[in-house]
């Protein structure tokens, strides 16, 4: 199915956000919900690392069912999101939807309804398998009842977060020149810096912050500091603990190119890797080294991020 370019046709309003603690049961409407990247609606039974994280059902289909004389409540069919303006089953797999900062990608049209379905036994029928669709969360955030839901065809925005690991900086005893340099370079390259934080050199704190950025779906997390041989330098360990896949070529390139400037580049323990749909890259602590190393790799990072997010298909040269 080819989507038309008139985006007004592909906009609607979220009429309900619904949640349940158990699968196969009626969901309860709530006014506001938090969605986590590659997980789903926080607190919902269907959230998880699989392809049916969030379910959608059109308001028109529910109203048609009500014509049978059954006054079902929104959420009665186990749907997470009810919206008007859409016949969701007509949308092809791969369609991207956006509500505020939250992005979804449709992964399945309908499903098989189990004979033991609690919804069917309580309502008498379940239209979700026929009329509903399922999706993954590509970029997390909050959604409120009444928000606009739209089909989007452009790439997701390039957003970034910066983490400076510094005991002194976290206490206000040292100016964060390195974090400021990272922000300057990222914004010049077209990134929107969503957040910039200074943390002490504590592995648990660094891990927690990196994961939280990944759960939000931030495209790129850049850390600065904590990559050397000091006992307190634990940024690489935190990065390795968080990442699900490594991207060794990035720190290898930084070290190789920096070796042309100073042989002490071999002492860097910087790492890079992927958590969900987020790329995490470690940089050294000095502003001069930050400018040098980030300058080496920044032009190539966007293509990797596009592949990670499904906006590009290959790395090979043509």
From TrEMBL:
Domain of life from the UniProt record: Bacteria
UniProt KW keywords: Molybdenum cofactor biosynthesis
Pathway: Cofactor biosynthesis; molybdopterin biosynthesis
Keyword Iron applies: no
Span of domain MOSC: 28-152
Coiled coil: none
Pfam families reported for this sequence: MoCF_biosynth, MOSC
Segments traversing the membrane: none
SMART domains: MoCF_biosynth
Molecular-function annotations in GO: catalytic activity; molybdenum ion binding; pyridoxal phosphate binding
Any single biological process term in GO: Mo-molybdopterin cofactor biosynthetic process
Function: May be involved in the biosynthesis of molybdopterin.
NCBIfam families: molyb_syn
Protein name according to UniProt: Molybdenum cofactor synthesis domain protein
Organism this protein belongs to: Mitsuokella multacida DSM 20544
